[in-house]
Amino acid sequence: MRKRRYVTHIPPADGQPGLELGWPADCQSAMDDALQRAEHWLAQANKPILWTAMIIGRQEQDGATRRTAYEVAFLTRLQQRLEELERAARERQASRDRRSRLQGVILPPV
């Protein structure tokens, strides 16, 4: 007998691709909650401790599968932001390197 798989979605963000995942239970609402909490944390100027932001929402999920789905979505959203920041930093450095070559000056990496 084949177990049913539920498809869940993590949308694209910060120029990074989204994900489509199969879970053994309907976990989309847990993932949506995690994404909302991660977005809220990312938007705050004075950020609270990250792990507390994740754990509070995780504890509200019923069952191990939903808690795991919550963690996956929360951390994926943070990873999307980190990958975009890394891409932007590489782009800035490449632009800076091009300018310094044109000027004949070698600048240390930032």
Walk me through what this model shows.
It is a single chain. This protein is mainly alpha-helical and 110 residues long. The chain is 60% helix and 9% strand. It has three helices and two strands, in the order ββααα. Strands 1-2 form a two-stranded antiparallel sheet. Strand 1 and strand 2 form a beta hairpin. Helix 1 runs antiparallel to helix 2. The longest helix has 40 residues. The mean pLDDT is 88.
What is the topological layout?
Blueprint: E1 6-10, E2 19-23, H1 28-43, H2 50-59, H3 64-103
Antiparallel strand pairs: 1-2
Q: What percent of residues are in strands?
A: 5-15%
Question: In terms of per-residue confidence, which ranges show pLDDT below 50 for 5 or more consecutive residues?
Answer: none
State the helicity in percent bands: 55-70%
What is the string of SSEs from the N terminus onward? Answer: EEHHH
C-alpha Rg (nearest Å): 19 Å
Record field, number of beta strands: 2
Report the end-to-end length measured between terminal Cα atoms. 57 Å
Strand order of the largest sheet: 1-2
Shape: elongated
User: How many helices does DSSP assign?
Assistant: 3
What structural class do you assign from the helix and strand content? mainly alpha
Mean pLDDT: 88
Taking the sheet with the most strands, its summary is:
2 strands, antiparallel
